[in-house]
Amino acid sequence: MSHDAGAADTEGSVTAHRDGAILRLTLERQQRRNSLTQLMIHVLVGELTQAATDDSLRAIHLRGAGGDFCTGADWVSTNSGAAERPRTGSLVRRIPHAAHRVIELVHSIQLPVVCSVRGWAVGMGCNIALAADFAVAATDAVFWEPFVERGFSPDSGATWLLPRLAGVARARRMLLLGEKVRGVDAADWGLIHQAVDPADLDDVAEQLLGRLATGPTVAIGMAKQALNYGQHTSLGESLTQELFNLELSSRTLDFKEGLEAFRERRDPDFRGR
């Protein structure tokens, strides 16, 4: 399935392809390093929203076409050519339903999300990768948050994601000083899951996706939800949330299969149910 306005050079597109139980989303705007137009953001929101309730899916793969992942929202194309200046408060009205919704969906959807990162991951593109459950990057990929250098404050979750992943001091280096971080350092900082040789990126991502797509999907989703919940609550509240999640996951067919496989000393055959 492909979403295209017929003018990829200006509008860009996002291709959505079902590969068994994996949904593969590819950003397609190579001549602009896959910077995101409003159309592309709209399609991402739609695809991720639909995936959230698709019981046949078990993992999501996000990647950019060509040599780069994504260089963020294309502010130039978004704000040029307007007949008149937007009304005051335009950003506050629009962004929560567009760019911010992409970050929220990647972060909260109860399916594991894997990002493959080559080349540049900038601004919102950087934050999409950081919001994913697993970002696998080429060692020479570059993560960059250039908001302040462009004269405006960070958005798309940067100030929430960076301190939690890499600490406040490193967040300041990226957000206030605009420091560029290569893939190998991003892995060392804990920003991403793994940095690998560029030639190995596709294979490593596929191995990870294969493992996740054959796992106990409900339990993975519950674990992801509890991890996110625990970032802003007390130990006692997290323990209670874990109990509710355990009650749900223990009612799945995969839970029964896991116990049987343990008793029979074999690998489990999870079906995502």
TrEMBL record:
<comment type="similarity">
    <text>Belongs to the enoyl-CoA hydratase/isomerase family.</text>
</comment>
<dbReference type="GO" id="GO:0003824">
    <property type="term" value="F:catalytic activity"/>
</dbReference>
<dbReference type="InterPro" id="IPR014748">
    <property type="entry name" value="Enoyl-CoA_hydra_C"/>
</dbReference>
<dbReference type="InterPro" id="IPR029045">
    <property type="entry name" value="ClpP/crotonase-like_dom_sf"/>
</dbReference>
<dbReference type="Pfam" id="PF00378">
    <property type="entry name" value="ECH_1"/>
</dbReference>
<dbReference type="InterPro" id="IPR001753">
    <property type="entry name" value="Enoyl-CoA_hydra/iso"/>
</dbReference>
<protein>
    <submittedName>
        <fullName>Enoyl-CoA hydratase</fullName>
    </submittedName>
</protein>
